[in-house]
Amino acid sequence: MLAELIQRAYDENENICDEIFEGELLTGENMSQIEFERVQFVKCKFEHCNFDHAAFYHGRFVNCDFSNCSFAGSYWKKMQIAGSKGNGAGLREAVFKECRIEESLFDYADFSQSAWEACMIVHSKFRESFWTEVKLKKVNFQTVDFTRSDFFKTRLAGIDFSGCIIDGIQISAGFGELRGIKIGLEQAVSLARLLGAEVV
């Protein structure tokens, strides 16, 4: 059903609105530039699909798998991603506003040059993910694993990482990204090692 609606959206230049898709499996599908409004994806799997410059409004991805799919330049507003897997997904230059991500996996995902505003990410894993030159504004991270993630040239001032894992994160040689960051004792020890200090 989803594949048919995608084709109709292209043929008639329409958005996809007020739909619930459950258990769909799509491989290599092109969904670029399509707008999804109040759409729920439940237990869907997308393999190597193209969502470049697509837009998602007021919807949900629940227990879905879109690992290794491309969402470059996509736009997300008031979306929820729960219990889903986006390992290796490409989200360069994506924009997220008032979104919530929980209990999800985004290991190795690429968020370079993306922008986040008024979002919450909780109980999720973003290990070895890429956050290069990202803009973060009023973003709340709670119990997020950022092990060995790359934050090169991303300003972290005012961001609270005290409940997160930031072991081995990658930053620039001048450590400017860390200025004004909020961390707990465990994170301080991890960052001290990163700065070359010996913790005794």
Give the helix level as a range of percent.
Answer: 10-25%
Number of helices: 2
Given as residue ranges, the uncertain stretches (5+ residues, pLDDT < 50) are none
Pairing-aware structural class of the strands and helices? mainly beta
Largest sheet: 7 strands, parallel
- Report mean pLDDT, rounded to a whole number: 93
Report, as a whole number of angstroms, the end-to-end distance: 61 Å
How many β-strands, per DSSP? 16
| CA radius of gyration | 18 Å
Which strand-content bin applies to the residues? 25-35%
Coarse shape: elongated
Q: What series of H and E elements makes up the topology?
A: HEEEEEEEEEEEEEEEEH
How are the strands of the biggest sheet laid out side by side? 1-4-7-9-11-13-15
Describe this structure in words.
With 200 residues, the chain is mostly beta strands. The strands form three sheets. It has a seven-stranded parallel sheet. Strands 2-5-8-10-12-14-16 form a seven-stranded parallel sheet, with no helix packed on it. It is elongated. The protein has helices at 2-12, 185-194; strands spanning 16-17, 20-22, 25-27, 35-37, 40-42, 45-47, 55-57, 60-62, 75-77, 80-82, 95-97, 100-102, 115-117, 120-125, 135-137, 140-145. Helix content is 10%, strand content 26%.
